[in-house]
Amino acid sequence: MDQPTNKTRRWRSPNRAAWDFYPTPPEATKALLSVEDFSDGSVWEPACGDGAIAKVLADAGLVVNATDLINRGYGLAGFDFLNAASASGKHIITNPPYGRGLADAFVRQALTFTRATGGKVAMLLDLRSRCHPLRHERWAKTPPAVVYALDELSCYPNGVATKAGYKPGRQRFVWCVWMPDHHGPTQLRWLAATQFKDTAPAVKAEEPQREVAA
Ligand SMILES: C[S@@+](CC[C@H](N)C(=O)[O-])C[C@H]1O[C@@H](n2cnc3c(N)ncnc32)[C@H](O)[C@@H]1O
Q1: Exposure check for the chain: N or C terminus, fewer CB within 10 A?
Q2: Which domain holds residue 132?
Q3: Long-range contacts at 52-57 (CB < 8 A, ≥ 24 apart)
């Protein structure tokens, strides 16, 4: 697919959130950290949005550099990943913009950087969109080392479920992880994001004490 740049594309598609802002629910990143280690170096979240992924990484004790093209009140704003000259971290973890081939461009750019840093790349992607004839050759040439298939995850435009315009579960999210010097086939693993959902029960009001007749 052609290499897109932000200069050459129109962003305000009526069917997409502006600048493709679909924040990642925290359980997706928690699930990734339960199976992959990034603690041997810094992590770059190059499309950080409002910090949905970066905050979970930082909470886990990782050293995180967060940047985004758009200012969403988190990280360094006005930073175009596709025009970045050098890496801002050993590893790269993000949920990239998807529209019009941008996810492909993010993967390519991330792999270029981690070839130099020796780090891993983890991208949250929609599996359906990866299984496309135009992508086949490139993915076959530079396959991820592992694809983690998430059991359930929904990312909404601007984080607002009611604005989705589609039913939850329409997309099937996977974490694609590229390792330095991986040349073999891709391993497929199942990963339950639901077990990392914040399901703490609401504090229950105390049951009123029944009066017991004497
Ligand atoms: C799908 S959202 C995900 C945000 C965040 N990574 C998360 O997981 O919550 C994609 C983000 O990519 C940003 N973005 C789009 N094009 C970009 C570019 N060329 N460089 C850096 N960030 C970009 C958007 O502003 C948006 O915040």
Answers
A1: C
A2: 21-196
A3: 52/23, 52/24, 52/25, 52/26, 52/95, 52/159, 53/24, 53/28, 53/29, 53/93, 53/94, 53/95, 53/124, 55/26, 56/26, 56/29, 56/30, 57/29, 57/33, 57/93
pLDDT of residue 168: 60
| CA-wise closest residue to 126 among 157, 105, 147 | 147
Would you say residue 213 lies in a domain? no
Helix (H) or strand (E) holding 129: helix 127-130
CB of residue 173 inside a 6 A radius of ligand 1:
no
* Ligand 1 atom closest to residue 5's alpha carbon, by position in its atom list: 19
- The closest of 199, 198, 202 to 59, measured between CA atoms, is 198
In a domain, 99, yes or no: yes
CA 211 to ligand 1 centroid distance, Å: 59
Q: How is residue 49 written in tokens?
A: 């949005």
Q: What is the pLDDT of residues 15-73, one digit of tens each?
A: 678 888 999 999 999 999 999 999 999 999 999 999 999 999 999 999 999 999 999 99
Q: What does the DSSP 8-state code read for residue 210?
A: P
Ligand 1 center from residue 21 Cα (angstroms): 6
| Count of domains observed in the chain | 1
Listed as ranges, residues in the chain with pLDDT below 70 are 1-15, 163-169, 200-214
Whole-angstrom CA distances from 54 to 33, 62, 94, 121, 191 are 12, 9, 9, 14, 20
